[in-house]
Amino acid sequence: MEKSNGEVKEEFKAPSDGSVCGFDSLHRLLKENLKPQHFQEVSRIIHGLNCGKALKAITLPKSAAALSLDRGFDLQAFSFNAEKELLREPRIVRVGLIQNSIALPTTAPFLDQKRAIFEKLEPIIDAAGASGVNILCLQEAWMMPFAFCTREKRWCEFAEPVDGESTKFLQKFAVKYNMVIISSILERDINHGEVIWNTAVVIGNHGNIIGKHRKNHIPRIGDFNESTYYVEGNTGHPVFETAYGKIAINICYGRHHPLNWLAFGLNGAEIVFNPSATVGELSEPMWPIEARNAAIANSYFAASVNRVGTEIYPNPFTSGDGKPAHPDLGLFYGSSHFSAPDASSTPSLSRNRDGLIIADMDLNLCRQYKDKWGFRMTARYDLYADLLARYLKPDFEPQVISDPLLHKKSS
Amino acid sequence: MEKSNGEVKEEFKAPSDGSVCGFDSLHRLLKENLKPQHFQEVSRIIHGLNCGKALKAITLPKSAAALSLDRGFDLQAFSFNAEKELLREPRIVRVGLIQNSIALPTTAPFLDQKRAIFEKLEPIIDAAGASGVNILCLQEAWMMPFAFCTREKRWCEFAEPVDGESTKFLQKFAVKYNMVIISSILERDINHGEVIWNTAVVIGNHGNIIGKHRKNHIPRIGDFNESTYYVEGNTGHPVFETAYGKIAINICYGRHHPLNWLAFGLNGAEIVFNPSATVGELSEPMWPIEARNAAIANSYFAASVNRVGTEIYPNPFTSGDGKPAHPDLGLFYGSSHFSAPDASSTPSLSRNRDGLIIADMDLNLCRQYKDKWGFRMTARYDLYADLLARYLKPDFEPQVISDPLLHKKSS
């Protein structure tokens, strides 16, 4: 796999299992291969652009485009639609997502690896800043390789306190660009026995730490088991009220849990970020579905970020795919994108390259769609509060109506 | 719009609002316009056929194909993948979904309209029977035009008791073909003051009525309001244990509610049917998302059925789209399809024509994916039981962490 500087390193080769296809972007593939009217029709279905609506492209400053060209990262920007209201001004927020591969082989000294990622991200964050991004979100555990597949404990050394060097690195950009930044790190909780968590730190636009959220749902997928390193979060479902709107973070595997998405919605989130690290063979067909479903069901924006590239480890391991031990988890397929409450979504960033995707979203769209579709009004939460309470009991009996003729032979 | 017999009737013309595109099937459009290797790659993403898996086409008996040709209905059949297990035999069930337009203008005498639908469905049900379908599901309120957009009360005359003539019509097929049939009707509950419900009747493979489920979530979308006719169902979330597996029915608008899908899963459903009647401008971009998300999140199969065509009413009405009064709700876009717990899905039936789609599914796949992805094990239902109980209280306060510098001016 080619790195953003054009240099080819053995550590980033594409897996040879045949499951990963060669194209870089579904959107571009279709655009290049379909007639314009067919492309438009397919986009209508795939990206939810009904009723003659169109995602407008945003013109970014030349400096951002120049950084993208110079550093070889994908750069895309769109604007979602919303109605003008009579009593509220539009509340347009510019949101950015950064996806990236790691910068050095996993065999390099840890501090070098981390610093090299900082260095690699700097121009991409600058491009976001130059573009006037208000809220920026990085991928899950962006400050390290996603080493949890190895089950080796030494990777814990990457963990930092919430106010550690990765946070400090980002705080200066938050101040410089008046930007809220969501930073998903491996956290070491010094004051509670040095335990480790998977944590998103929310940095305010003045560089202050507004708070943190710890990953609620921890994957056990086959023999891939992140609870080797950290367990289920203890921070509930906080919504962070920032200068640019109410935001929440559903970390990675939590996107498979509709209840997790729901809880952030009940607490008032207008944008829910899903910083992820997930590979093609496992989850790629789910990736365009789950966050978008959450945006529809909860009448908020969803922002999906996934890392890029294949990370090779020194010692082979098994990773839940039933294959013999091998040195990589698979291809992190990027494809970061946004989904909106009106069921529309942006195209995705590249499957293979670092990238920055930007969207302008009028947060008024959330309430407009609550009013239009009435999902909260028709939700009957009382039924489900009751069901879940009953389900928790050891003697729960499912509501099953059996055919009394079940064991009668057919005539 | 062309009827299945080739005759063109004014009542079935496509709307002229520009929102409805001309293609009949996304799958066929892509297949015809992309190079084979591109088509395969796009299918992998769109239909979730990862890891070299492929949906196998099923060879149906010639009699079924002949009926499809003769009557002009779309006929497609697929087989989902599952692993062989060591301790359980495969539990392969053949499931069919029928989508159709109405058969006579809405101005025809009501009994004629209903009988004409019976007549039109007969050969399609015969094709399902000839194909060995075990469980068949029809679309929402299949025995009438979907007149709830008119807000006129006279359409209530279509309502029937659970054991009414529509049930009797289907019972003979259930017996003849040893088939479970899910029949979504407008129900009149004689024993409770003749009140009306939106109800799915489950007919066992011996022709017996196993039970009924009443639509849990009733749409109010803009000024489209089905609660003019019936209110929220009072039958909970029953799972019906049939000769061919445990099934449940999430009627139409209930598909927008992840909690509704969840509840059927908690009660043990292996296949959840979503008989629907929904139009292009409102919901088409959500249609490929929601049932598929439910199949993934709940580790069961989902089966989506939507009606076909544009139904013209005698008196114009407004229908939530903000346009002046007009005589139709819009195009019911068909597109019936299946989704599986492994995130794969079949292509969809035609957007414009009547159709029968069939899939073989090994119900063992449900538990295989529960075991693999561990969603139930990692669900933390206790958190959500508690949250929903608190949310119901009038003094619920969302979990919000405000930036203390929220109102500080930027330097």
Automatic annotation (TrEMBL), chains A, B:
<dbReference type="GO" id="GO:0003837">
    <property type="term" value="F:beta-ureidopropionase activity"/>
</dbReference>
<comment type="similarity">
    <text>Belongs to the carbon-nitrogen hydrolase superfamily. BUP family.</text>
</comment>
<dbReference type="InterPro" id="IPR036526">
    <property type="entry name" value="C-N_Hydrolase_sf"/>
</dbReference>
<comment type="pathway">
    <text>Amino-acid biosynthesis; beta-alanine biosynthesis.</text>
</comment>
<dbReference type="GO" id="GO:0033396">
    <property type="term" value="P:beta-alanine biosynthetic process via 3-ureidopropionate"/>
</dbReference>
<keyword id="KW-0378">Hydrolase</keyword>
<dbReference type="InterPro" id="IPR003010">
    <property type="entry name" value="C-N_Hydrolase"/>
</dbReference>
<protein>
    <recommendedName>
        <fullName>Beta-ureidopropionase</fullName>
        <ecNumber>3.5.1.6</ecNumber>
    </recommendedName>
</protein>
<dbReference type="Pfam" id="PF00795">
    <property type="entry name" value="CN_hydrolase"/>
</dbReference>
<dbReference type="InterPro" id="IPR050345">
    <property type="entry name" value="Aliph_Amidase/BUP"/>
</dbReference>
<feature type="domain" description="CN hydrolase">
    <location>
        <begin position="93"/>
        <end position="363"/>
    </location>
</feature>
